[in-house]
Amino acid sequence: MVASHDVRSRKKYQSGKILQENIMKQFLTKSGKPITIGTGTGTKWQWAKKATDDKYFQPVIDQLKLSIKCGYNHIDTADTYTTCPEVGKAIKESGVAREDIWITTKYAAFTIQGRRAPETITLAFNQMLEELETDYVDAFLIHSPFIDEDYDYTLTTLWQELLELYNTGKIRYIGGSNFSANHLKLVSSLHETVKPVMNQIEFHPNLQNQSKNIVQFCKDNDILVEGYNPLCSLFKFKDENLSNYIGELVKKYGKTDSQIILKWVLQMGVLPVTTSSNEDRIKQSLTLDFDLTEEEMKEICDIGAKNKQRFFFSDFDEQDL
Predict the structure, then answer these.
(1) Does position 3 have pLDDT exceeding 50, yes or no?
(2) Is 294 domain-assigned?
(3) Which member of 72, 74, 143, 204 is catalytic?
(4) Which end of the chain is more exposed for a tag (fewer CB within 10 A), N or C?
(5) What is the mean pLDDT of residues 254-267?
(6) What is the pLDDT of residues 14-37, one digit of tens each?
(7) Is the pLDDT of residue 1 over 50?
(8) How sure is the predictor about 233, in pLDDT bands with cuts at 50, 70 and 90?
C-alpha cells in the first residue's frame, strides 16, 4: 500500500480546496465518500469521561451524533482516550452506515494519568474493535514513538506487530502520531511496500513543526499530516499580535476566528482534527468556502513563529521528537 495522493503545489501556501481535493483522491470512506476534517474525542472529552465510572459518557455520544448530523464523517479516537465505546454507540445511533464513516484510532505503549495501556497492540486492537462495534478501522496509528520501559516493545517490534495486524485486512491504513522524520524513516524501512500514510502532530500557528522539518518531510514522502489542537492559539493562551491580525481577517472575510485558523491549517497542507459541542461552530468548521491570500498566510506564519508554544510533549526538545 503506497499513498498516491500529492498535497504539494507550486505555491508555498496552497488553496485549501486543492488540498481537500487531493486528500479526497486517496482517503475515502469504505463506501467511497470523501473524508471531512476530523472531529476528535481526546483532549476535551477524555478527562471528562475518565472522571466517571460510566461505560458510556453521554455528552461524547451527543457531540458525535451532532457532528455526524452536521456533516462530519471522520472521527478520531484512541485507546488512551477511553472513548471508543462512545464512538461505536454514536455511529450506531446516528443511522449513518458504518461504511460512510471514517474511524481513526491509536495505540500507545505507555501509562498516562495512571492508566496503563493494554500489554500488546494486538490485544488493544481487538478490544477497540469490540468497543467500536465494528470489524475494521479505517486508520490505526501508533500514538507515540516513545515506549515505556516496562513494555516488551521497541518501536521496530511494535511496528512489525502492526504490520501483522494490517495483513488481517481489518485495517485500511496505518501510520504514526507524534512521529519525527527519523521515526517515520525507521518504520518505513521495515516493509518494501506497506508504508505509513498518516502522521498526527500538534499543529497551530504557534507550533508549525512539532519536530524538525516534519511537515515538509511528510509532504515529500506522501504522508498526510493531520493537525491536532489546531485552535489552541485562540483558546489556550493569548497571543495578542496573532489575535489582532486574525481579527482583521474575521472582518475582511465575514468568518469566525476558528474558521480563519482552520483555513490556514488546510492551506498549510495539513488536515485539522478539532472538536466542538456547539452546533453553530460545528457547521462553521465545515464551511471553509474562502481562501487566504499568500500574504495573509505568510503573516499568520510569521506572527505565530515569534511566540512558539507547545502543549503536548512539552518536556521534549524539538530535536528529541
Answers:
(1) no
(2) yes
(3) 143
(4) N
(5) 96
(6) 777 777 677 767 899 999 999 999
(7) no
(8) confident
Residue 318 has phi, psi (to 5 degrees) of -55, -35
Nearest partner of 102 among 124, 127, 132, 63, judged by Cα: 132
The CATH number linked to 265 is 3.20.20.100
Residues in the chain, overall count = 321
Give the three cell numbers for residue 135. Answer: 470489524
**Non-local CB neighbours of 296 within 8 Å, separated by 6+ positions:** 249
What is the DSSP secondary structure assignment for residue 269, as one 8-state letter?
A: T
pTM passes above 0.70: yes
| Number of domains within the chain | 1
Cα(87)–Cα(83) distance, integer angstroms: 6
The domain in which residue 107 lies consists of 16-305
309's grid cell? 508554544
Options 13, 72, 74, 81, the catalytic residue: 81
Q: Is residue 1 part of a domain?
A: no
Burial 277-297 (b: 16+ CB within 10 A, else e): eeeebbebbbebeebbeeebb
Q: Are 298 and 13 in contact (CB under 8 A)?
A: yes
What tens digit of pLDDT does each residue of 139-154 get? 999 999 999 988 999 9
Active site residue 81: yes
pLDDT value, residue 267? 94
Q: Kindly state the DSSP code that residue 132 receives in the 8-state scheme.
A: H
8 in any annotated domain: no
